[in-house]
Design brief:
This protein folds into three domains: about 120 residues, Rossmann fold (3-Layer(aba) Sandwich), CATH 3.40.50.2300; about 160 residues, P-loop containing nucleotide triphosphate hydrolases (Rossmann fold), CATH 3.40.50; about 130 residues, Helicase, Ruva Protein, domain 3. Helix content is about 45%, strand content about 15%. The relative contact order is 0.09.
C-alpha cells in the first residue's frame, strides 16, 4: 500500500514542489496551505506529516503541538528557513522527528522522508516483535589499541593455556572469553559460564564438582558438575576473586591434575577442559590482602588485560553505530554535539554503560536524530566544560556552523580518511584540509 504523506505550507508553489518530488518515489501526497485546515481532518490515516514552520495564523510549532496531543505516534518533519538553527533545535525538542532546511533539493527531501519512514517502521516492528536473534556478538573497535588486543587473542586462542582476563566492569571480559572459545578448535564443544559472584560458596562447590545422591541434605539425586559437563570445551569462571580461598584451593588442585571428584564420591573423573577466568578487581591487590591465592594466580599461564573504553575513545562512534544496529535502530543518527559529549565522557562503566545509555535514550526520544538534550543529565552537566574548550564556532555564521558539522560528521564516519571524506563531501582534498584547519577540527585518535 502507498504511504500517505501530508504536506502543509502556506506557499502553494512549495506544496506543489514537494508533491512532485515525493510522488516520484511512489508516495500518496496531499497538501494544505494552512495548518488549521489540516487539523480539521482525521490525520491518523497518514504515515508522515511535513510542515513549514513560518506560516500566518497557526505556525508549524503550534501545529506540531496539536498533532502530538491528538496523534502522538505520527512522525512530523518540519521545514525551516535556511540557517535558523535555533528554531530547528526548538522543533526537535518539541518532538519533531526531523527537520529540513529550505531551500532543499527534491533528492534531500526524498532522503529525509525515507529515513523517517524507515525508523517509524522499525519502531513499529520492534513493538510487535521480540528482538530478533542476531548473529553471535563480536568485539567491536578498530583503534590501534583494540587491534593489538585482537592480535593477543588470536595468538592464544587455540592454545589450551589457562587465561586470566582482567579489566574493569563492562569492558567485554565475557565477550573476550567467548571469542577465545569460538576461535579455538574447541568451538563445537561446550562453553560453560560460572558466575562465582552470584552463587554462595558451598553451592558453588557442588555446582562445579557435582555430587552423589545423599551426599548432603537435599541431594536427592546424583548431579553432574559444570566442570564435567564442559568436557572437551571451555569453562569460564566469571569474577573468580569472589571464590573463597578454601574453594580456590580445591580448584587449584583441579587445574593441576584435571581430576574431578563429585561430593560424596571416591571415584575420580579426568576432565579435559580449558579454564578461562575473569576478574574486575585488581588481582595483585587481592593477593596482597590475602583474598586470592598466589599459587592459583600462577596457574594462569596468560594474563590478558581488556582496555577500558576511555583508553580507546576513537572507537566510540563505531561502537555506538553497532549498538544502534544491535538494538534495532540502524537509521537513528547522533548529532555532532551529542557525539562530542559521548566522546568526551569518561565511561566508568565502559561498553555496558554505553548500552544502558543508548537503550534509555532510544526509549525516551522519538527522534531520528539524537541531540544532547536527549542524553541523560550527566552528559548535559559536562556540556559546559566541553563547549568551553572546543568552542571554535563563536564567529561562524549559521551556514558555516552547519558546514563544520557536516565535515566533522563525515570525517568521523570515515575514521578521518580524508580522501574518502572529500569524495563523500564532493570537494577536493585540498579544500577539505583548508576547512579542517579553518574550523579547528581535530582527530581525537591522532590529535
Ligand atoms: N568491544 C566491545 N564490542 C562490542 N560489544 C562490547 C564490547 N565490550 C563489551 N561489549 C558489550 O558490553 C556488554 C558487557 O560486556 P561483558 O559482559 O563482556 O563485559 P564484562 O567485562 O564481563 O563486564 P562485567 O565486569 O560487568 O561482568 C555486553 O553486552 C557486550 O556484548
Ligand atoms: Mg562479566
Amino acid at each position: 500500500m502507498k504511504k500517505r504523506i501530508l504536506v502543509i505550507d502556506d506557499d502553494a508553489v512549495a506544496c506543489e514542489f514537494l508533491q512532485e518530488a515525493l510522488r516520484l518515489d511512489g508516495y500518496d501526497v496531499t497538501t494544505y496551505t494552512s495548518a488549521q485546515e489540516a487539523l480539521e481532518q482525521d490525520l491518523s490515516s497518514y504515515d508522515l506529516l511535513m510542515s513549514d514552520i513560518r506560516m500566518p495564523k497557526m505556525d508549524g510549532l503550534q501545529f506540531l503541538g496539536e498533532v502530538q496531543k491528538q496523534w502522538p505516534d505520527l512522525p512530523v518533519i518540519l521545514m525551516t528557513a535556511y540557517g535558523s538553527l535555533e528554531t530547528t533545535m526548538e522543533a526537535i525538542s518539541l518532538g519533531a522527528w526531523d527537520y529540513i532546511s529550505k531551500p532543499f533539493s527534491p533528492e534531500d527531501c526524498r532522503t529525509i522522508v525515507k529515513k523517517v519512514l524507515d525508523v517509524r517502521e522499525l519502531r513499529e516492528k520492534r513493538m510487535k516483535l521480540q528482538p530478533e536473534i542476531t548473529e553471535e556478538p563480536k568485539l567491536i573497535g578498530s583503534s590501534a589499541l583494540m587491534v593489538d588486543f585482537y592480535k593477543q587473542i588470536a595468538r592464544i586462542a587455540d592454545a589450551s593455556a589457562s587465561v586470566l582476563i582482567e579489566g574493569e566492569s563492562g569492558t567485554g571480559k565475557e565477550l573476550t572469553a567467548r571469542s577465545l572459545h569460538s576461535m579455538s578448535s574447541r568451538r563445537d564443544k561446550p562453553f560453560v559460564v560460572v558466575h562465582c559472584g552470584a552463587i554462595p560458596d558451598n553451592l558453588l562447590e557442588s555446582e562445579l564438582f557435582g555430587y552423589e545422591k545423599g551426599s548432603f541434605t537435599g541431594a536427592s539425586h546424583q548431579h553432574t558438575g559444570l566442570l564435567e559437563s564442559a568436557e572437551g570445551g571451555t569453562v569460564f569462571l566469571d569474577e573468580i576473586t569472589e571464590m573463597s580461598t578454601a574453594l580456590q584451593g580445591k580448584f587449584l588442585r583441579f587445574m593441576q591434575n584435571g581430576e574431578v571428584r563429585r561430593i560424596g564420591s571416591h571415584e575420580v573423573h579426568h576432565v579435559a577442559v580449558r579454564v578461562l577466568a575473569a576478574a574486575n578487581k585488581n588481582i595483585d591487590e587481592e593477593v596482597n590482602n590475602g583474598h586470592f591465592r598466589l599459587d592459583l594466580l600462577y596457574r594462569f599461564i596468560v594474563r590478558l588485560r581488556v582496555p577500558p573504553l576511555r583508553e580507546h575513545k576513537e572507537d566510540i562512534p563505531l561502537l555506538i553505530e553497532s549498538l544502534l544496529k544491535k538494538f534495532g535502530y540502524p537509521n537513528v543518527r547522533i548529532s555532532v554535539e551529542a557525539m562530542e559529549l559521548l566522546i568526551s565522557y569518561d565511561w566508568p562503566g565502559n561498553v555496558r554503560e554505553m548500552e544502558n545509555i543508548l537503550q534509555q535514550t532510544l526509549l525516551l526520544s522519538p527522534f531520528a536524530v539524537i541531540l544532547p538534550e536527549n542524553l541523560p543529565t550527566r552528559f548535559q552537566q559536562q556540556e559546559e566544560s566541553v563547549k568551553s574548550d572546543t568552542d571554535v564556532t563563536g564567529d561562524l555564521s549559521p551556514l558555516e556552523i552547519a558546514e563544520r558539522e557536516k565535515i566533522l560528521q563525515t570525517l568521523q564516519a570515515t575514521l578521518w580518511n580524508q580522501s574518502k571524506a572529500a569524495q563523500i563531501l564532493d570537494i577536493d582534498r585540498k579544500t577539505l584540509r583548508l576547512k579542517i584547519r579553518r574550523y579547528g577540527l581535530v582527530n581525537e585518535k591522532n590529535p
